[in-house]
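Last lecture ended with a question: if I hand you only a sequence, what can you say about the shape of the protein? Today we answer it with a concrete record. The protein is OmpA-like domain-containing protein. Below, first the input exactly as provided, then the predicted structure, then a couple of comments.
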Amino acid sequence: MKRFIASSKVTFLALSILIAAIQASACTVSENMEDSLPLNSAEIPNSDRLRITEMVIAARQWPNVEIRGIIYAGGYAIERDPVALAGQRGSALRAYLIQLGIKESNIWMDTREIKRPDIDSRGNKALNQIAVTLVPICEGGCERLCSDPRVMPTTRAIQ
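The predicted structure:
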């Protein structure tokens, strides 16, 4: 029994070191935005459309990948018909991503009713009813992007 426990500890230690080594060389590649909209409005402001366009242009620089668009759209409980409003916001964002050339099959959308506002870094309430994230879709994994000089990772673990 002692031999089994000792062997298990060695195996656990080896796996822990391996996982740490893998995590140490990982990075994240994405383009992100979130914003607050006027209450009860489903219209995406031109400033957000411009930011999303800039994100798509940046994402097109990722070599040999397709682009996944992830949409989060919410309606606050204090808005009129928040669930329907979230759907309208999400549909507007989806249509805009498609207009910019993102394949419809590569777009994921999450809509929801939001009960409480977010709190920003200064402690102020932030509505943030919409968010768009673009990530690469890579055949066989995206690790190669971490060391590609054409790609600016969003996060990179220190090695």
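Comments.
1. The first helix runs from residue 2 to 24.
2. The beta strands are 27-28, 31-35, 66-76, 107-114, 118-119, 125-126, 130-137, 155-156.
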